[in-house]
# Entry
Amino acid sequence: MSESLQTERKNATFNIKELTDTLNGGPEETRKRKQIESLVFNTPAFHRQDRFQLSREEIYDYSIKVYGELIKLCKKENIEIRYDNPDYVRLVGCIPEEIPVGLHVGMFSSSISDQGTEEQQKKWIPLARNFKIFGTYAQTELAHGTFVRGLETTATYDESKQEFILNSPTITSTKWWPGFLGRTSNHAVIAAQLYTKSKCYGIHMFIVQLRDLKDHKPLPGVTIGDIGDKFGFDTVDNGFLRLDNVHIPRENMLMKYAKVTPEGKYLPPTNAKVAYSAMTLIRVVLVRGSAKALASASTIAIRYSAVRHQTETAPGKEPQVLDYVTQQYKLFPQLATALAFGFAGNYMIDTFNKIHSEISSGQLDALSELHGISSGLKAYTTDTATAGIEVCRRACGGHGYSNACGIQHIYANVLPCVTLEGENTVMYLQAASKVISTIKRLEQLRRSGMDQDEAWNTAGIELVQAAKAHCHYFIVKNYLRSLEKLNMTPSLRKVMNSIALLYGNYGIDENAGDFLESGFMTGEQLNLVKAKILQLLSEVRRNAVAVVDAFDFDDKYLRSILGAYDGDVYNRLYNWAKSSPLNKTEVHSSYTEYLQQLLKSKL
Ligand SMILES: CCCCCCCCCCCCCC(=O)SCCNC(=O)CCNC(=O)[C@H](O)C(C)(C)COP(=O)(O)OP(=O)(O)OC[C@H]1O[C@@H](n2cnc3c(N)ncnc32)[C@H](O)[C@@H]1OP(=O)(O)O
Ligand SMILES: Cc1cc2nc3c(=O)[nH]c(=O)nc-3n(C[C@H](O)[C@H](O)[C@H](O)COP(=O)(O)OP(=O)(O)OC[C@H]3O[C@@H](n4cnc5c(N)ncnc54)[C@H](O)[C@@H]3O)c2cc1C
# Structure
């Protein structure tokens, strides 16, 4: 165990276990989490030491193996795989890979349970829940992701056969990006333009079988595959799909809200946007996901900064890099943000559960409110977490660039979240129709003769800024309210208050221009904010390692040499280097193939 980390832990002014329990929702919740986690951490099949040295094909193979192991484990332990089962959420939450179960449960099955009739649910949900079928959510196309109404895939009703016929009429209508579509899924919920009696009724969802259940071969009319290598998400076979006259029974259109009768009559839903429910669920989940990702990266960078000593500041004294105020100014706001987003994530899950049960019972009034807040917070938290994770990586210096750091993987998997489930600018704009002050500006533009679309586009930058400011304000308010409600010992409360104040003051400092421009604060007041931040950084310094310890990430989850609990960074780094595939033999084969020739040549 690193002496530096031991000292940090000894010097903490609060009880680490108390904070872990507080963040988990009580000691009993911590116990349940640890019990579930031990199932994963004690099953060797979930872990590969050489994970970061595998080829793309091997990584995909590994992710499917993990998927299978997870399903077996759930069956053995009697854990029902559904997104609203806390034990399942705990279990899947300690697997640090993207595996197909997320989309299968979170988008494929949830679309059916939210938008399917009782009969459809009776037929499909047991098949999905028992993994007799593997599903994904195929909406995005080559030419249209954001503009859902512009999708080109068609589902045309043929009343003589009571079937829908699905087609990708153009290259641009090829489904593109859906996760686990390329090689894994045999079914998909597909978004397509519904046609009946020669009239288009817009986007609706259809369950389509894509592959044979016996040999997994694509069914007639289905052309399907992986879209190729990406920045990250290397476990995922994001796919392409073309449909050529694929027939499905009428009953495969999800018909809880919108319906097509056997005779081909279209019956509209009370709110067409109810068809977007799966996207809303994942946007909500991503708020908590951002918090967890930033907490993981903060843990690695803060532990490493306590172990790392650099630059002799007095004879024989090389301080821990965590003692430099500049390092604290990089890292402690990330720690504070992770906590703030954690509370925002809890708020979103509670709000989602409340509104979701209203929607299930047919009351759709709060759908738009849920959409506004989930869009804004999804964008704000994924944007901020992505930037914060990179700050953590850079704070690890040179070793931060090695895959041994562990932050790269976190970054690569959070990065697409600023695009998937709604590109963030577009999501901010969805949240901005909800911010009162921007309406004034829009009215001004309208009075100057612009039409609604023109005015909206012209005010776009301000609208996005307003949405960001609103999300930030909401998160600060929710953070302070959540702390007030928690039952904590005075020593823990003191630490948590300092971190919350740091979050608030740092936010003002970062956006100082806006506060000055609006006349809300003077330069003198901003100087007070800066002084307060310095004071708070020194308060947080003493407890920083203990706070990240309280997140309680297992080393098997973090997979970081720089951020492991024992801080034995240098021995581990040396062993990591020795295990590099390039070091397998004493002399690499390229020597005899090329270098030796060069040495022998008479150039
Ligand atoms: C962090 C670490 C985690 C790691 C891994 C996680 C893995 C995750 C895996 C996930 C894999 C990724 C999986 C994927 O990526 S799945 C694909 C995700 N795709 C998208 O998210 C597409 C984004 N685009 C849209 O959602 C729509 O097209 C938007 C919203 C832009 C416009 O829409 P549309 O073109 O239809 O517009 P309209 O003009 O007809 O209507 C506008 C009106 O509609 C209201 N409205 C709009 N939407 C909703 C809604 N949902 N609930 C309630 N209401 C809604 C809106 O407020 C407005 O209301 P009002 O103002 O008129 O009253
Ligand atoms: C890793 C990953 C996984 C994915 N998984 C799935 C999946 O499982 N299923 C699925 O169906 N899809 C999936 N997607 C697709 C994803 O949902 C879309 O890529 C996303 O919704 C963005 O759409 P787009 O690609 O069309 O971006 P575009 O809309 O083309 O964005 C390009 C630029 O245009 C801007 N822009 C677009 N419209 C507007 C506007 N109205 N106002 C202002 N600016 C605008 C954007 O801000 C952005 O800067 C996935 C994508 C990725 C990267």
Summary: The chain has three domains: 3-27+278-551, 29-113, 135-274. The mean pLDDT is 95. The first strand starts at residue 135 and ends at 138.
